[in-house]
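INFO  loader      accepted 1 record
INFO  loader      residues=208
INFO  predictor   begin
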Amino acid sequence: MENSTKLYKKYAPLSTAAGIGSMLGSGVIVGLSATIPVWQRGLDLSAGQVGIISGVLTFAIAFGSLFAGKISKMFGLFKSFNWLNLFYAIGAGCCVFSNSFTMLLIGVTVMGIASGADLPISLTVVSHDAPNEQVSARLVSSTQIFWQVGIFISYICSFLLSGIEGVLGARIVFAILTVFSPITWIWRTTSKKFKAFHEEGILRQAKM
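INFO  predictor   done
INFO  writer      dumping tokens
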């Protein structure tokens, strides 16, 4: 029987794929908070509109997290895990090309719901697929590192791009998030290794 260290290394790619979802979640929170003054000036937003956008992001993340169970039941746990990042990418793309309050609000809302739902669903998938409780605990813990990575990357990008005129800097920050999300979507949906992990997990659950 494989020891815990070997099993952890074997399943580490799954926790990385789940962790990138956490990175995208913290990325949108920090990315928006760091660039909202730029959006306000560039899109000529009022103070009230800025408050609405910030509040809607918080509400959307909470909504996605709260209804993650219903989403996974409606579409299936693994299908939800695989496809949520595509919706995040669509929302991020809306933000990149935003030219109005409404478009930015829609983009932020979609990103918030997708990232809010992805975190609990990803952790559920990791726990479901892990071969035992010890490995599951290590895998789940490792995904938390990516939340901090997302914060760090968003702050660094926002700082480096702060000198760019207009909203271009803010668009680039969200473009970076747009790039990461479809890559994660493709990885999750096409990986034969992940599919095998899911199937093995289903068989283990059936034997319990």
